[in-house]
Each structure stands twice: as structure tokens, then as C-alpha cells.
Amino acid sequence: xxxxxxxxxxxxxxxxxxxxxxxxxxxxxxxxxxxxxxxxxxxxxxxxxxxxxxxxxxxxxxxxxxxxxxxxxxxxxxxxxxxxxxxxxxxxxxxxxxxxxxxxxxxxxxxxxxxxxxxxxxxxxxxxxxxxxxxxxxxxxxxxxxxxxxxxxxxxxxxxxxxxxxxxxxxxxxxxxxxxxxxxxxxxxxxxxxxxxxxxxxxxxxxxxxxxxxxxxxxxxxxxxxxxxxxxxxxxxxxxxxxxxxxxxxxxxxxxxxxxxxxxxxxxxxxxxxxxxxxxxxxxxxxxxxxxxxxxxxxxxxxxxxxxxxxxxxxxxxxxxxxxxxxxxxxxxxxxxxxxxx
Length: 342
Ligand code: TRP
Prior knowledge:
- This protein has 342 residues and is mainly alpha-helical.
- The protein has twelve helices and five strands.
- The structure holds tryptophan.
């Protein structure tokens, strides 16, 4: 239903991650590297920590502020420059929630019932899920459109939510006869390394919620920990194949090769050309060396930032001011379109 519309505003980037209390290699290679590339290309970028989304599932109010700081520190340690990009907490910009309400009256129940992430997160007992978890993608649409963002760097798993954002924007413009008010935001799907899998099971995504810490490399891990996790990563008994096709059906091998390529900024082909035919006894130490070289500076910067929460709070508050300066006029325009007083 996303009809082409005439949108002529500037190119803007928005993305966000949940404050899960610590980010890992999957977030870094799957998202943050891309955020930084978009920023360095000169686009106007808004990178928020989605702490409104964080309360759709049970959460601990005591640890939330620190979790938000950790996420922001990880963004910055990865190369997001708070002088260039607005780095802020979603809850500090009330326009997100306000626009989300309007969009809840635009989105249709049937659209949300098709969202697969809700089905995954709600599990078997969906009657007990919060209503917020159900309307989560509507808030996500508001996050994006309250800045009239045109491009949204996300993982493959967020494509459906982006489609919903376009449907909401298109339906809003059709219902209220205001073509061109919103862009139809496009996902920018990350290239190599989008799907970083668990180091213990090549068929599962690397995840903060995995019980085994050995399954992931955290952005806060020091060099020794990184090396130990690579060493203990699951593999199979075969040497690396001579061609990329040979990785089919070998999820752990494919994952480690993918991680190497993403860290190096090269491709699976290049890595296979270099290591094809070699055993993991050769490949793992190389991977470990590369991972330490790339991630240790990120980890150092992360801990430096986490040692100065006052400085992080200042950055977040600055970011929120900048974000609000864009979001408030958009919300004002929406209020006029829907006929609110004042
Ligand atoms: N739903 C996203 C995720 O699970 C997080 C998110 C919330 C987001 N709002 C967003 C991503 C807006 C991009 C744009 O990863």
C-alpha cells in the first residue's frame, strides 16, 4: 500500500537499540559500524536508545538509567560522534510517545497481528503480553517519522517493522490528505556481518539474553577474554573449504568466516581465498588477533566513557535538545493536520 509520494525533505537517518545493559559483537558489526559509515558520509543522524521500548517487557527501574548510559557509551565507543549525530534517550523526547498515540489510531489491528517479532517475544501466552509489546512497532514508526527520517539502518529482522512504518506514513497521508508530509522510510540493511551468530551455536543469533557468556563477544570484553572466547568457539572437524559454497551446511564455520570478513571490512570470498584449506588451529588465532586489534580500542573507549557518567549524561541531554528541536515542529504540524486545538 506504500504508494509513491512526493517527499522533498532532506535525507535523514534514524536508528535505535534497546538498553539491554551491554552491547556485543552482533550489535557492533550488524549495526553500529553501519551507523558510523552513514554519519561519516555526512547525513544528518539521530541515534537513540529506545528506553520506551524497553518497558514493553518486565524491566528493573533501578538498572535502567545505567543501561541507557551503557548503550550510549557503546554507540560512541564504536565511532558515533555526538558532535555530528544526536545521541539521546527516546524517553527524553516526549514527541515520540505523542506521535505514537496518533499512529495507533492510524495503524490497523490486522497489520499488527501479522508482526512476527511480537509473536516471538510474546511466546505461547500472548494474552499476558503487555499491550505495549503489541503496539511496539507503532512506536518504532513514530521514532522514525517524528524526525521525517528517510533511511533507517537496521538488521534483516526489522524489515517488517519498516514496511509497517511506510504503511502508517502512507495511510496517514491518505486519510488526512497531506501527501508529501512524511517520507516513506527505507531500511538500510547492513551488508557483511549483518547476522552474527552465537559462538556456541551457529544457527542462533548472537544475543545478550543467551545464558552462556561464551556465546558472545561483549563490547566491554578485554583482549584476554576475547581471545579465550574465540578459542572456545564451536567449530566442526573439517578444515575451511576452498570455496564459499563449501560453507553451506557448516553454520559455525560460516559464522567465524563472516565475523572475520566483517571485522576486516572485506568479504567471505576474500577470507576463503586466504584461509581455504586451513584448519581452525590456524584460522582461530588469526581471528582472535584481528578481533582484539579491532575491538580493544572500542572496549577501552567504552570503559573510559563509563567511568564518567556525568559526561555521558551531558552528552545525552545535549542530544535530546537537538532531537527535540527537530521533533517538536513535526509534532506541531501533525497536531494541525489532525485538527487539535492550539
Ligand atoms: N525494534 C528495533 C530492534 O529491535 C529497535 C528500534 C526501536 C528501532 N525503534 C527503532 C530501530 C527505530 C530503528 C528505528 O532492533
